[in-house]
């Protein structure tokens, strides 16, 4: 699969853009563990133009994480064009336009998935961003605004006509948010359209290597984007790629997984500071499957998510790794 001159190989698996998740440390870890391409957090066009420090920091790309796409969102042509030019100057491999974020503070203001209620403006933004830059432009969007307006098959053609070089489809409507099941049959209809020649990337509910292969086989998509399943478990890319390549899931050891979480904590602290770095990483700790199913874990979990120094948090992780998990394994 190629996006412009970016060759991602056969059936690539990508890290989806996620706010407060896909910072450059997490992207690099996912890349090292098998992700074929990674995406930044959402970048607000308006904040970028105003040179807001928290936004401009999102543009940092480590050379080892490439290929990297920077994703931008906004609600008017001029600001999106200006933002795209600013982004192009830092030399990402791809600029991705976010027409899929469903959260109220974005979609409610007409950006992200809010554009699904104003298709002419969506197309106008896309057309002008493509014209403004000299690197590949892609789009990520949803099936439509709601169940009665699943317009993605026709919309995919219109976006292609604007000049985008790949399309990612999340298999839900905006009104669904993240509830219900992703509709991969609808994604397959997009891919089956003979008029569509650009790569189609599917997204939604891909949580295991088996679901990944099934989605590829059943939908025919060119690539798949993995989002929430990677939070607290970046090794999912290692498992997925090994299964795709060999038919066998190669799992890291528990010790290796704990070291990856420790690395995330250390790098988050280094990037920000100890207190805020640990706050940032709590989402990963709360979601990590390493702690799922441990009996009588409530008090330890609360302590882990309340720890506000690296030493305190590392001591709790050591106890889980060296005392709690071995005791459970011995009982079984």
Describe the structure.
This protein has 332 residues and is α/β, with parallel strands linked by helices. The chain folds into two domains: 2-246, TIM Barrel, CATH 3.20.20.70; 254-331. Helices cover 46% and strands 14% of the residues. The strands form two sheets. Strands 3-4-5-6-7-8-9-10 form an eight-stranded parallel β-barrel, surrounded by seven helices. A two-stranded antiparallel sheet has the order 1-2. A hairpin with a 2-residue loop joins strand 1 (2-3) and strand 2.
Topology:
Blueprint: E1 2-3, E2 6-7, E3 13-15, H1 24-32, E4 37-44, H2 45-49, H3 53-56, E5 68-73, H4 77-89, E6 94-99, H5 104-107, H6 119-132, E7 137-142, H7 152-161, E8 167-170, H8 184-192, E9 200-203, H9 209-219, E10 223-226, H10 236-246, H11 254-271, H12 274-287, H13 298-306, H14 310-331
Parallel strand pairs: 3-4, 3-10, 4-5, 5-6, 6-7, 7-8, 8-9, 9-10
Antiparallel strand pairs: 1-2
């Amino acid at each position: 699969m190629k996006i412009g001159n970016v060759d991602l190989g056969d059936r690539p698996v990508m890290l989806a853009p996620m706010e407060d998740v896909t910072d450059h440390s997490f992207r690099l870890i996912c890349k090292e563990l098998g992700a074929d391409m990674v995406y930044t957090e959402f970048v607000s066009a308006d904040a970028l133009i105003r040179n807001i420090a928290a936004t401009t920091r999102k543009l940092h790309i480590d050379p080892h994480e490439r290929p990297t796409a920077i994703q931008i969102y906004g609600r008017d042509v001029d600001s999106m064009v200006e933002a795209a030019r600013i982004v192009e100057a830092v030399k990402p491999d791809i600029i991705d336009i976010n027409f899929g974020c469903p959260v109220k503070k974005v979609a409610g203001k007409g950006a992200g998935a809010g554009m699904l209620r104003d298709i002419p403006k969506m197309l106008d933004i896309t057309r002008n961003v493509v014209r403004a830059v000299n690197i590949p432009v892609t789009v990520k969007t949803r099936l439509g605004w709601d169940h009665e307006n699943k317009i993605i098959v026709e919309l995919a053609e219109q976006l292609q006509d604007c000049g985008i070089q790949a399309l990612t489809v999340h298999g839900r409507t905006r009104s669904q948010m993240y509830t219900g099941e992703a509709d991969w049959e609808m994604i397959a209809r997009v891919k089956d359209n003979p008029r569509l020649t650009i790569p189609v990337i599917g997204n939604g509910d891909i949580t295991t290597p088996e679901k990944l292969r099934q989605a590829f086989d059943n939908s025919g998509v060119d690539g798949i984007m993995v989002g929430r399943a990677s939070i607290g478990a970046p090794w999912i890319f290692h498992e997925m790629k090994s299964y795709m390549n060999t038919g066998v899931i190669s799992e890291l050891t528990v010790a290796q997984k704990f070291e990856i979480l420790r690395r995330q904590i250390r790098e988050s602290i280094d990037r920000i500071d100890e207190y805020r770095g640990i706050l940032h990483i709590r989402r990963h700790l709360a979601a990590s499957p390493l702690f799922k199913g441990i009996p009588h874990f409530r008090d330890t979990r609360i302590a882990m998510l309340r720890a506000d120094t690296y030493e305190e948090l590392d001591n709790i992780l050591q106890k889980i790794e060296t005392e709690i998990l071995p005791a459970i394994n011995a009982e079984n």
